[in-house]
Fold Periplasmic solute binding protein.
Amino acid sequence: MNQRRSARLIPAIVPIVALTLGAAAFAQPAPQPTIVTSFSILEDFARQIAGEGADVRVLAPVGAEVHEWELVPQNFIDLEEADVLFYNGYDLETWLPQAEATLAEGALAVAVAEETGYETLPITLGEFEGAPDPHLWMDPRAAVRYVEVMRDALVAADPESAATYEANAAAYLAELEALYEELREQLGAIPAANRLLVTSEAALLYYAAAFGFEHEGIWGSNAETEGTPEQIIRVVTLVREREPAALFWESTISDRYVQSVADETGTPVAGPLYVDSLGEAGTGAESYLELQRANAALLVETLR
Ligand SMILES: [Zn+2]
């Protein structure tokens, strides 16, 4: 009964709202676009490009598991209000169809990783073996391309602020380019015999390719079943054969699987590595630049 009554009221209200907005458009500068990002890495990139005070929102927040995030009520509000949606693509966000269905007509949705044209590497094991691995952002050279794609999308969506986006992006791109060189030099201190990274999710393929590591995980993608007996047995066998200096756990998933492999093999455990999310306040991995530096510091400290 109540719902029906409010439904009848809506048509009377809409023209008034439209008139009010129309008048405001003449009196004030164009409103800033609402930029919605799928996870915290893209949120950071968007804030760097759009600058202080921009309306940047995130669906899977810091610390959340992005692959299998379940949209919460606030996400639907953000998606309905979005002018631009930035998501990674290559099936990182298994929930993307639901998010896209909620977007307003005319909103721009950008699969950032896919738009980079950066060469993909195949997932190496598990249910999704052979599909393009989505974790391209872990290579700072791919992150450069992410920022270029996002800058161009924002310029297209909001040409009035083009100069701001271009200037902010240029400054940040210089930092990302310097970061790659900095990490390469720092990680170069790790001896060849210790350059095997074993984690829960084998999400460091691009990172390993960028910095000269071998990489193994217990499972291939967080989108599949985690920690099955078969996965544990395979990696225990591998760890016994290869004898890595340490096993690493990641911030967005339980360390219990890595711990059980460590218990079984007597290998030390280190972590967390930040991959699918920035770190929470106080972790020292609260931005993409800090995330990369925190990971590199941990690897050098553990493996050198
Ligand atoms: Zn992942």
Remarks:
- Confidence is low (pLDDT under 50) at residues 1-19.
- Residues 34 and 55 are 5 Å apart (CA to CA).
